[in-house]
Each structure stands twice: as C-alpha cells, then as structure tokens.
Amino acid sequence: VANIYIGDNLPLPEKALIAGIRLRSRGKGRGIALGIGDDCAVLQVPANRQVLVTTDFSLEGIHFRREWHPADSVGHRCLARGLSDIAAMGGEPLAAFLSLALPRKLSQRWADQFLSGLLTLANEFHVPLAGGDIAESLQGVLADIVVVGSVPRGRAILRSSARPGDRIYVTGQLGGSAYAVSLLLSGKRRRLDPRDYRSHFYPQPRIAVGRVLGEHKLASAMIDISDGLSTDLLHICEESGVGAEILADAIPRAQVGPTLQEVDLQTALHGGEAYELLFCARPEKTVPGQIDGVTVSEIGRMTRGSGMVLRDRKGAKRKLRAQGWEHFRS
Amino acid sequence: VANIYIGDNLPLPEKALIAGIRLRSRGKGRGIALGIGDDCAVLQVPANRQVLVTTDFSLEGIHFRREWHPADSVGHRCLARGLSDIAAMGGEPLAAFLSLALPRKLSQRWADQFLSGLLTLANEFHVPLAGGDIAESLQGVLADIVVVGSVPRGRAILRSSARPGDRIYVTGQLGGSAYAVSLLLSGKRRRLDPRDYRSHFYPQPRIAVGRVLGEHKLASAMIDISDGLSTDLLHICEESGVGAEILADAIPRAQVGPTLQEVDLQTALHGGEAYELLFCARPEKTVPGQIDGVTVSEIGRMTRGSGMVLRDRKGAKRKLRAQGWEHFRS
C-alpha cells in the first residue's frame, strides 16, 4: 500500500514514473523528516503551529479534458487546487501527496509532462512531493492531490467568522478561467492557446496574500473562489450565519484572450476555478489595494440575515443567487 | 475546492451523502481543531510528535469489484489500507480524509453502506473523518483515503533500518485474503460469504501492535504486508541494503473458508492485502509470541548481501523471488 514505492508488480511505465518522482523529489523541503519510499511520510511541524489538510480530485472528463488541456496544465491545476485551499486558511504549504491512476495506454510523455507541470509549481512554492499512491486506471487519468500545510495555532482564517458590517474583498480579477471554459464548452473553439488564458491553464494560488492577511490579522473570514464568487460567498454566509450585499460595479472582471476581452458580469459573478481569495474584514481595518503585487478590491459588505443581494450603480437591488458553474462533463 | 462542503452545484444524492458524512463526523476526535466544512481541516498535533501521512486508492475494477465486495466491505478496506500504513510506522492515527467520486447511477443505498463500513472502522480506531472531496465519476467508484497520524519525534519505524542478524517476524496469519481473491478470480465461486473470509473482507489494521513495538523499541524496521510477504520483505531488504533468509515452515498460514482450509505456502508467501505487520528486531530483543491478542511469529533473519532465500525443513535453500499479487482487473 501506501506511500509511493517501486512496486514489483507495477507495469514498467508506472515504475519509471515513480522512479522519476522519487529522483526529483527526494530530500527537499525543510519540514520533511522522511519523504517518498516508506509506508508513510514523516513531517516535522514547527512548534506552536497547527496542521492544515486538504484533498482535491482532478478527474479526466470531469475536471479537465486531455484534448483541451496540455498535460503540464493538468499537473499545474491539480496542485494549484490544493495550494489555493491552504492559502484560503492563511496557511503555508508543507508538503504535497499525489495519488495518481493512469490508463495502460497513456504515453510516458503525457505522464512526464503532467509531472513536470505539477513539480514546477511545487518548486515555485517550495512544496516537496512527499508521497502518494500509484495505480492503474480503467478509464481516464485520475489524480487526487493532498496538501498538508501549517498555520500559527488558533490563527487559521475560517469561513464561519464573518460578522454583519464586515467589508468584502476579492483578490485579482474574476471570470477569466470560466470564460475559457465557456469558449471550449460552446464548441466555438476547439483549442485555446494556454498563453492567452493563463488564469485557466496556469492559475496562481494566492499563498503570499493569504499569509499577509493572516499575519496582520486583516481577514475575519476567507475562502478561495473555486465554485464561483456567488457560491463561495454563500458558503461564508451560511457558515457565518450572515447575509451579504455586493456592488456589481465593484467586481473586478478579468480581461482574457488575445484581444484582452473583458468578461461579462455573469461570468465574473458565477464562474468557477478563479482560485482568487474572497475574504471579509472588520470595517475598522485598513486593507491595502494591493498585496504581494496582487490587486485587492472591496466589493461589498456582510449584512444581518441570510440573503445575498446584488446592487447596481443606480442603487437598485436584486437577489443574488448562488449559481455554481459547470465542469467539463460532456 | 477542498474540504467536503455542501456544494450547490452537486446532484442531490451527493449532497445527501455529504450532509450525512458531516452529521456523523462533526466534532469528534481530540486532535481535530476544525473538521469538515472549511477549505482545510485544522489538526492539533501533540508536542514532540511528528506527523505521518499516507494516501491509498481504492478503485473499482482494480482494488475491488462491486459484484464481489459488499459496499460496507469496500468502505472498511478503503480505510484499513491507510490505517495499516500508520501501524507500519508504529504510529497512531489522528484523522482520515476521503476523496470519493461516484457514478451518477449509483444507488444511495450503496453509498450509505460504503460510508457505514468506513465509519464503523473509523469509530473503532477513534479516527474522525475530518474532510475530503466529493466528485462525480464517469466510470466506477473511485476512492482515495488519506490518513494522518503521529509518532513520537524520531521514533517512526522505517523500512530502511534493518541490519544483518536481525530476526524477522510477522503478525497474525498470511494468505487468507489472497486465497479469497484466488477463489473469486478463478471463477470457481461467484460470491463468497464475507463472514467466512473476514481477513479479506474486513482486515484488521494492527495499530496496537505497531504502537507496542514502537513504545518498547522492539522493532528495528517494519512494513505492512500489502503486496505479499515476498514483495514487502524485498522492500525492507532494498531500503536497508541487506538480504533475508526465511524458514518455509515458520510462515503462519491462514485457515479460511467454511471448512477452515489452510492456505498453501505459495499463497502465504506471495499473497497480498494481508495487512499484517512484517518487522525486524535486533537478536538481543525478546519479542513476545503475542501482542494485543495477535500472534507474532519469528520466520527468519536478515543476512548480509542482497538476496532473499527460502529454507525448507531439511535445510535446503532456494532463491526467494518477490512475486506481487494480482489485483481484480479482469
């Protein structure tokens, strides 16, 4: 079972893959007492810190399609999902674990490039790949990423601690990833150039921003925008027992594609996989307009009650419904 | 992304499943500062302990078949795989995380019973289910279990620390699970009564034995037998840079089925998924014949060099090859 090891009953491409992972991942990372090659990895968590754990599937046909996503983008996005959850707690990543099941006929090249995309992002954030599991898949590439992180004791930024009157903020721009998805799903474009749609193919987890917000005690509640602003805001509202009012004009809309087309309001409001941070702050806090080079926009405030409201520039209000976005299922 | 939450874009059976998990898992466990319902779980690891992490796939068609395995057995085995890895380090489990992808047409009853099997074992070992991920699967039930545990600092029992002259031990009896698999794969039996083959359908992770071995510093190296004795012994040999000599007659063979049939030597030597512990001890250590009610058998000793040897009762030696076992792939 277990941690990645060179199993003798594995077919050759998988053995090569594991050997490659092991070679490229051994001995890195401060918090890793023992990495790949035993029943478990052993992590050394700094004193006075708590441990964060998150797991996220990346399943072919659900979260990505091989005809649309280059292998290195699939690997990048796989890890970015987990890192973004660590960011949303104000935490720091310690180590990643990858469970990966590959179909027999998959090319070694695809597997190598998947791993390359994942490990490039891992190196960027100094997160060693410390273990996982390898298996055969009967259909499609199946990946599950686990990221273990840490946060100073009692300082994790939760979804449940927003209060009426808190201001609401988002990092970066919204809707860029969902716009790319809508182009692909509509059939208008068979392929996209990943360089024109980086927010979809290579999203940047906001680890540094989350850490700054935690260190300076700026955020009262936080979540990452994976299901879309409206849905993730509802999660904060439900967990905190409050409502929210959003200013339509304040929502930062992404400009994407070769012509830097600005996405429409609906895409920015409901589009998923932005991997930006959505957070609240008490009204007396001064939140900078930029943190670690990332724009921070105030978009509304938390209210009493439980409803979400969208206000336009003339002051007219309408109910804001959480509208989750579609995955890649055909 | 992330931790399990009630996503608004999930189909109803999945929402019900998550609500059920959350209801049955909330607020349990000493080490859980924050369980299901946020971007990450937050764990409190006792001071002077290191963190153990292991991940294991349970994929339909590879690790189990729905026509052979009752849903509660699939759930039990899924978690047992992870717990067994924690046991193999001499550790204690702290929390489990489940990534679960279900096909649309799966019955709610199957999902409920899967969860029941998993949570029954979790409760037995006081391991709260603290998070995970839920997704749709395009084919088959896909589960990935993560178990996080802890061990006193520097006291994890590794695969790499065996020395020539160490005695080799195994817990329990071997081959019972593999025998059940061989009956099913051969087509001789379309179904087995799980009560007659408990070592296959409901294996017991040896957490208490592993902890005792660690506390009393009895084991110099350890692994759990998931790939079969010969393969897992090879892992210890390779990681420790030593060889091994096993006494054929000393291998404890399981008695399984309604007639308590004793399995043959080959099945005990090479059969996988025993989830017993294989460990080494320095020759001066006194290892009890039973720990926590589980038989402990001495089966050989580690040697210089790198080969594995099997010795019969007449003293004749032959080379022992690692022969991994088959999964359920058709």
Descriptive report:
With 330 residues, chain A is of the alpha+beta class. Helix content of chain A is 27%, strand content 27%. Chain A has helices at 12-25, 71-87, 108-124, 176-186, 198-201, 207-215, 229-240, 265-270, and strands at 32-34, 41-43, 49-59, 92-102, 129-136, 142-152, 167-171, 221-224, 243-247, 255-256, 261-262, 277-281, 290-291, 294-303, 308-311, 317-319. In chain A, the strands form four sheets. In chain A, strands 7, 8, 9, 12, 13, 14, 15 and 16 form an eight-stranded mixed beta sheet that branches. A four-stranded mixed beta sheet of chain A has the order 3-6-4-5. In chain A, a hairpin with a 4-residue loop joins strand 10 (255-256) and strand 11 (261-262). In chain A, helix 2 runs parallel beside helix 3. The relative contact order of chain A is 0.16. Chains A and B meet through strand 2, strand 3, helix 2, strand 4 and strand 5 of A and strand 2, strand 3, helix 2, strand 4 and strand 5 of B.
How would the blueprint of this fold be written?
2 copies of one chain form a homodimer.
Chain A: H1 12-25, E1 32-34, E2 41-43, E3 49-59, H2 71-87, E4 92-102, H3 108-124, E5 129-136, E6 142-152, E7 167-171, H4 176-186, H5 198-201, H6 207-215, E8 221-224, H7 229-240, E9 243-247, E10 255-256, E11 261-262, H8 265-270, E12 277-281, E13 290-291, E14 294-303, E15 308-311, E16 317-319
Parallel strand pairs in A: 4-5, 9-15
Antiparallel strand pairs in A: 1-2, 3-6, 4-6, 7-12, 7-14, 8-12, 9-14, 10-11, 13-14, 15-16
Helix pairs in contact in A: 1-3, 2-3, 2-6
